[in-house]
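Researcher: We're reviewing a set of sequences before deciding which ones to prioritize for further study. For each one, I'd like a predicted 3D structure that I can look through quickly. This is G-D-S-L family lipolytic protein. If possible, include the structure in token form so it fits the rest of the review sheet.
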Amino acid sequence: MKKLYALLPFLGLFLIACEEDTTPIDNTPDPVEYTAGTADFSNYVAVGNSLTAGFSDNALFRAGQEASFPNMLAANFALVGGGSFEIPYMADNLGGATIGGETDANMDGSPDIGNRLILTFAASGPAPTPVSGQGSTEITNKLSGSFNNMGVPGSKSYELLAPGYGSLAGLAVGAANPYFVRFSSGESATVVGDAVAQNPSFFTLWTGANDVLLYTTGGGTGMDQTGNLDPSTYSRNDLTDPNVFAGTLDAILQAMTANGADGVIANLPNVTDIPYFTTVPHNPVPLDGATAELLNGAYGAYNAGLAQLQGLGAITEDELAQRTISFSAGEGNAVVIIDEDLTDLTGFNPALINMRQATEEDLMVLTSRTFIGTLANPADPTSINGVAIPLADQWVLTPAEQELVENALAAYNQTIAALATAYDLAFVDANALLTELRTSGFQQSDGSIVTATFATGGGFSLDGVHPSPRGYAILANAFIEAINAKYGSNLPGVNPLDYTGLYIN
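Model: Here's the predicted structure for G-D-S-L family lipolytic protein, in token form for your review sheet.
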């Protein structure tokens, strides 16, 4: 009994220790203290083309401008002293515009200003279709004030330095850009000049895409201007000379950094990574046996003529095999295309034009999906485009044309990387980023994966060239990662799931 009494004090202590602690536990994480590092984000200006402006679904419209990657960056910069970010908003969410009341804004090579695309569903399946209605943006109604987003859709690198690129008078002769006309400071203004006039403390620069992209989306119908140092002689769809690009970019960066601004610059993605060139197969033609036999008979004389000239040494056996056209019953017949890089045999026989069937190495442009299979002559049911009638150069980017693009792109990106180092700027490898988007995609916090698959992948808009808002968010995070690494900031980035992968109306 004495032992029991002796244990009572210890038992009491044990019971006290086991009583429930009802004190509330504060699980609120300590607030993150964001810092700008060595950068000054107080006056941020973005310079570039449609990718900077927020162009999406083949148009510029308010919601797309709000979801531009510079606007996302500006929201992050506001956490560490960033100021307001003014955008030259379009008047509505349709995207269309008029010039002096006229709806045809495609004036001598200026960017066409049509309505944005939406996904519609018909008996033939889902298809991108311009949204109905007339946009209320009037290009001649010039906006007042200065703007932090200086992204100008359709601009090539050297056009950012061109006086009068925002001139209303220049529209009629194709010397001005309608988007810049709306918010340029004057008739002789330049895009870079208006950007520098704001004395930015920080800038982003992403330009050069159109120096190569307009050639590619045109199916290689332009010329490679390598060796021509006078861009005033270029056509709209030409490839810019690498030295012209290098000199232009250097001049832009000299101007942007003249007052000590820090910044970030991005390189250019490979066109083979965008849905505009990865969606339409080279062999989409189904045929029944009778039709295949009919076509083979129709191309018999062409094939025989090729064989005869090969026997005479006019072409090689490899070119003969490349040019011989043959169809079979079933799925997977390749379209017939014009290839200007084949040997010209029309001097021997005018019927032996430069045509062949496409291979998997050819890149069909996205817009060919609604052209292949249509009739060249509505009165002739046999005049099927891509089958009986070869597709013109504008519908396909051939391997020879792709090589020109790759050479230009490699030169441009080498310049961008070198100048990023020379001007001590942050650098974004957008080329690697978009390659990753196509090959493996980006996994999100909810387990979903954003890919480059057309219409369903979530990374690209319905024009197959420009990112969707979610794709722009992924790009914004790449810019923020580069900025944090270079300037010692700790900006949080954005959640791509906060932005749509596809506008549904």
